[in-house]
Structures are given as structure tokens and as C-alpha cells.
Amino acid sequence: ALAASPSVRLRVTSTVGHMYGAEFPAAFRRWKGVDPISLFDAEVERIEPDDGKSCIPGQLAAEAAKCHAVVLWLDCDREGENICYEVLETVVPNLAPHNRLRAPPLPQNPKEFDFRP
User: Fold this and answer.
1) Is the pLDDT of residue 82 over 60?
2) I want to staple 64 with a disulfide (CB 3.0 to 4.6 A). Which of 26, 37, 49, 91 is the partner?
3) Which stretches within 36-115 are classed as H helix?
4) pLDDT for residue 23
């Protein structure tokens, strides 16, 4: 795999926080006239920053097309985890294929599997 390669080229890029925002639909954004209990069941819309003019998703997709693997370094909290999933949704479908990088099948009971090399 990549670890056994005599050389590896790295590409480094970054985000500036969240790639997307989250909002309630317009009907739920009024402070008056909305029952707060109804917000628990309301859908949440994903909003692209800058009215969709942000170049970060396209930039990450373009970088991913030149790579076979991705390593993320984010804050170890819930917000960092959320940003991680936003990045992965954009990057993973665009990664360049690599014929030697295949994940082994998971065992029936992962607790019994020895993940050491």
C-alpha cells in the first residue's frame, strides 16, 4: 500500500471552518408565531456560504481528484467532527482510484478482530 511506497507526494490544503451552514426553513425562522416545540421535528436545510459562491467545495474536490487517500486534522470536538464529515462528503467521491488500496472486509464480529498489522 502507500506505506510501502518508496516515496509519497503530499498535497496540503485547508478549510476556513464549516463548509456549509444549517438553517430551519423560512417558515420556522420567525421569532414570533413559531411554536418552539415544532422545531424539534422541523427539517434543517444545508446552506452553502456566500450564496453558493464559496470555492472551497470545488477546491477540495479538485484536490481529491489528484490524491489516493485523505488525512484530516481537525479539532477533537463535535464541531471538528461535523466539519470532518462535511469535508469527507466532498472529498471521498472524488478521490483518484488506486488499484492497491482496498480495505479488508470487516469480520462478522469486529470486537474479535485484531486490527494490528
Assistant:
1) yes
2) 91
3) 56-64, 78-91
4) 86
